[in-house]
Amino acid sequence: MSVERGEYLKLSSSYVQAIGILVMLAELPENDSLKSSEISKRMNVSHTYLQKIATKLKHADLIESYASKQGGYKLKKPKEKINFLDIFLAVEGETPFLSHINLEPIDAMFIDQDLVAEKAEVVKEIHRDAQKAYLKQLEARLLTEILPKDADGQYLIIDWKKIINEE
């Protein structure tokens, strides 16, 4: 079997939506902002749910919001400095991979209680190591890697308000 099995990794919809929000905000013209209703309309997701995700991104200092007629959300942290670990931790928190996982079915495979404890610890160690590697990789990758560029290598600037209003 191949080691390349990324398609089996389960990403939460919150995490994926957070990436979408940040990409849209990163593509805005300077000093522009988007309202949560505009973002949720474009992403075709629940407005209430999107607001909850945006609040998490705001608490992580990735975005900021302005309450006014022209207000909305915009990036607070420069797009070149946002890595996927920032996004992941903002939305998912620091919950270990094995939290809330019942390892008792593994216990039934062994008769000796010492062996049960030893092998359960091995399972935990394997997943702790996997989590460390995953988080390290997220930290090494930047949001800008998925932002589209023009022929000159400049990040695209998209007038999302215009596009959304034309839909």
Apparent shape = elongated
Counting structural domains, the number is: 1
In CATH terms, what is the fold-level topology?
A: Arc Repressor Mutant, subunit A
The termini sit apart by: 45 Å
Strand content: under 5%
**Count of DSSP strands:** 2
Name the structural class. mainly alpha
What's the average pLDDT?
90
Instruction: Write out the strand line-up for the largest beta sheet, numbering strands in chain order.
Output: 1-2
- Taking Cα atoms only, what radius of gyration do you get, to the nearest Å? 20 Å
Helix % is 40-55%
Poorly predicted regions = none
| Broad CATH class | Mainly Alpha
What does this protein structure show overall?
- The structure is a single chain.
- This protein is mostly helical and 167 residues long.
- The chain has one domain (11-160): Winged helix-like DNA-binding domain superfamily/Winged helix DNA-binding domain (Arc Repressor Mutant, subunit A, Orthogonal Bundle), CATH 1.10.10.
- The protein has helices at residues 13-26, 36-43, 47-59, 84-92, 104-107, 113-140, 160-166; strands at residues 63-66, 72-75.
- It has a two-stranded antiparallel ribbon.
- Helix 1 (13-26) crosses helix 4, helix 2 crosses helix 3 (47-59) and helix 4 (84-92) crosses helix 6.
- The longest helix has 28 residues, at 113-140.
- The radius of gyration is 20 Å and the shape is elongated.
- 16% of the residues are buried.
